[in-house]
Design a protein that fits this description.
Shape of chain B: globular
Radius of gyration of chain B: 25 Å
Structural class of chain A: alpha/beta
Helix content of chain B: 55-70%
Radius of gyration of chain A: 24 Å
Oligomer: heterodimer
Order of helices and strands of chain B: HHHHHHHHHHHHHHH
Strand order of the largest sheet of chain A: 5-6-7-3-8-9
Helix content of chain A: 25-40%
Strand content of chain B: under 5%
Number of helices of chain B: 15
Number of helices of chain A: 11
Shape of chain A: elongated
Chain lengths: 328, 346
């Protein structure tokens, strides 16, 4: 891809369709009555880092398994690198590196032998496999302990070994399921730096699932928020903040018995919740004048009124705490 | 078994860059992804053979076999001078059971299943418990290659262990008797070897079923051991009780009563693979034996004192052999289907 023909002199059009690495169309998975993934349609572009965010049980892992051809969609279809994972699972699996949630290794084997096994399963010729394993152990900083049995590895080491394992096959798409869970902040930083580097230097498409936005937002080009099997928001961090028309205010009120009810009555206010002795008001537009009038009309006064950054955490929390009951 | 360094048809990525950036190289090489089960089988076989389990069972079965052959060789030596006409003296080592020590093939019927259970009870649930299953099936292999490879590896490990045991035992017997097997004996021993592999593979398939069905390896192992106890050690007792209660033998019993009782007992006994194995190998290892059923003493005396060629011995035990093979296939199919229907993530 990177080495496109140089003789091609036609300049690229100003606005092109970006190449799509992964596409889901109406992807749905039901287990009996429960809907794990509900009508997911999504394009993930080649070379981007895509964050799949949502609480546990939101359908992130099920989506990933369908993309890998390891679970069959109830309806809808997926396309990975132009191939259908249900029809052509081997070719899809040969191009997609997967770091599963809570990755496991053969405990009685060394880290190096675990990677060698993966290289063999990917049919790497012996010498090439050996070289690849060495390179990857060096890349994730496990060369020194490569011959130790995995049973002695820490969680962070396992996670890095898992990343190396996912890279053995030289994937064009890398799927990391909750890679930052249960490792210390330093480990998270190292891991995400590696992911960033892979994406920048090699153009690997990365899909990264997490339930902790703040950990992954700096590496993600775009983010999709999953709640109860539905994609409720999609875009870059900035887009999500503005497109959702998310206005968040921090309000301090004195002189009124029940300020939360009063503020909730103001037109445009979506949610009011207490936070640190103040109130956080979430609104669909600028409601500062309305808030001011409502408070003064009842004889109270404002001690504080400020717009909070329309940060993603707030959006994220709104989706999590209001998981769509109002949809009816 | 060929190593991974065999002739590689895939061209190496020539001209790849050197140094650090190779590690991040994402050049995709289209490969043929057939035969993944062999890679899995190779790894599993190595695991089995290097395991403590393998060593313990090999020692256990070998010791039992040596004890059986040792106790059988005494009477054979004593009678050797007067029994020069006895055909296949060497094979008697495997079937003669004086002094209440079971014969070698009976010992193998009892202990052999442990080999099958040991190589299968944690095949699938072990992968689940370690969290390696999602990683494994995300590689370019078909899902069924996981269970196929494990079955193949188990059979190979069983074949290796049995081969060792039979070689050790035969060697010891040859030294004790001072004679070696004839070529006919060798062929019969090989036939016995194959039947024993099939019989133990049946237990391997059973263990695989349990390892797929049960989330915990310990549960699967206990269930397998329980089934083993019932079908091998207690089967005789159970068959006797069933026969006595349904076809009781009164004090003034006629021959017919006794025969009825014995026939029913044998029929119940044949529900156990152990019995089928014993009948089949008994016939294969003893060319003079002309029936797998019940022989009344008169008939036994009247039976022609000739020996059967191997194909006739085989035809005597054909349905036992077919049943053993069918049982193995059915059990493996059950494990296969259950595994294919399970979710990757449990």
């Amino acid at each position: 891809m990177a080495s496109a023909s140089r003789s091609d002199t036609i300049p690229p059009p100003a606005r092109t369709e970006r190449p799509v690495a992964v596409r889901a169309e109406g992807l749905t998975k039901r287990y009996g009555e429960t809907v794990a993934v509900d009508d997911l349609s999504l394009d993930i572009y080649s070379g981007e880092v895509f964050g799949l965010l949502g609480p546990n049980g939101a359908g992130k892992t099920t989506t990933i398994l369908m993309l890998l051809g390891l679970a069959e969609p109830t309806s809808g279809s997926a396309s990975v690198d132009g191939m259908d994972p249900t029809r052509d699972p081997l070719r899809v699996k040969s191009r997609v590196g997967y770091l599963p949630d809570d990755v496991g290794f053969y405990e009685n084997m060394s880290g190096r032998d675990n990677l060698r096994y993966t290289a063999a399963l990917n049919r790497l010729p012996f010498t090439e496999g050996e070289r690849r394993v060495e390179e990857l152990l060096a890349l994730v900083g496990l060369s020194d302990v490569g011959d130790h049995k995995v049973e002695g590895y820490s969680r962070g080491m396992r996670q890095r070994l898992g990343l190396a394992d996912a890279l053995v096959k030289r994937p064009s798409i890398l799927i990391l399921d909750e890679p930052t869970v249960n490792i210390d902040p330093e480990g998270v930083r190292e891991l995400l730096e590696l992911v960033d580097r892979l994406s920048d230097e090699q153009g690997v498409t990365v899909i990264l699932s997490s339930h902790l936005l703040h950990q992954v937002e700096q590496v993600c080009d775009r983010i999709g928020i999953f709640v109860k099997g539905r994609l409720v928001a999609l875009g870059t961090v900035e887009e999500l903040a503005t497109d959702l028309d998310q206005w968040v205010f921090s309000v301090g009120v004195d002189g009124i018995d029940d300020p939360a009810t009063v503020l909730a009555g103001v037109a445009g206010v979506v949610d009011v919740r207490p936070a640190d002795g103040r109130l956080v008001v979430v609104a669909s537009r600028d409601v500062r004048s309305g808030v001011h009038r409502a408070v003064t009309d009842r004889g109270g006064y404002l001690t504080h009124l400020a717009r909070e950054g329309a940060d993603l955490d707030a959006i994220y929390h709104r989706h999590f705490h209001e998981p769509g009951e109002s949809r009816g | 078994m060929t190593t991974a360094t065999g002739p590689t048809t895939t061209p190496t990525t020539d001209g790849t860059t050197t140094g650090d950036d190779v590690a991040l190289d994402t050049t995709y090489v289209d490969r043929s992804y057939r035969g993944g089960w062999r890679i899995i089988a190779r790894k599993e076989f190595a695991d089995h053979v290097c395991s403590i389990r393998f060593l313990i069972l090999l020692v256990l079965v070998s010791l039992a076999g040596l004890a059986a052959v040792h106790s059988a060789s005494g009477p054979i030596r004593d009678a050797a001078d007067s029994a020069t006409q006895t055909p296949s003296v060497f094979l008697l080592l495997f079937t003669l059971s004086p002094e209440r020590v079971p014969a070698f093939h009976e010992f193998l019927g009892i202990l052999g299943p442990l080999l099958g259970i040991a190589f299968g009870f944690d095949a699938i649930n072990g992968e689940r418990a370690q969290g390696t299953l999602p990683r494994l099936v995300a590689q370019p292999i078909h899902r069924d290659e996981v269970i196929n490879g494990k079955f193949a590896a188990g059979i190979s490990a069983i074949a290796l262990a049995l081969g060792c045991v039979i070689a050790i035992v035969s060697g010891y017997g040859a030294i004790r008797l001072g004679i070696g097997p004839t070529s006919g004996d060798v062929i019969r021993i090989l036939a016995f070897y194959v039947v024993a592999i099939v019989y133990i593979s049946l237990w391997l398939a059973l263990a695989l079923v349990l390892s797929v069905a049960s989330r915990r390896a310990a549960t699967a192992a206990l269930a397998a051991i329980a089934i083993w106890l019932v079908l091998t050690l207690f089967a005789g007792l159970i068959a006797g009780v069933v026969a006595d209660s349904l076809r009781s033998v009164p004090s003034d019993a006629t021959t017919e009563n006794v025969l009825d009782n014995a026939r029913l007992e044998l029929a119940v006994r044949r529900l156990s693979p152990d019995q089928l194995y014993k009948e089949a190998t008994g016939v294969l290892l003893n060319p003079a034996r002309q029936s797998t059923g019940i022989l009344v003493l008169d008939e036994a005396d009247l039976a022609l004192p000739t020996t059967l060629p191997l194909d006739q011995s085989l035809s005597l035990a054909w349905w036992q052999l077919v049943t053993l093979v069918a049982g193995t296939v059915v059990l493996f199919a059950a494990a296969y289907v259950t595994f294919m229907r399970q979710e990757v993530r449990a």
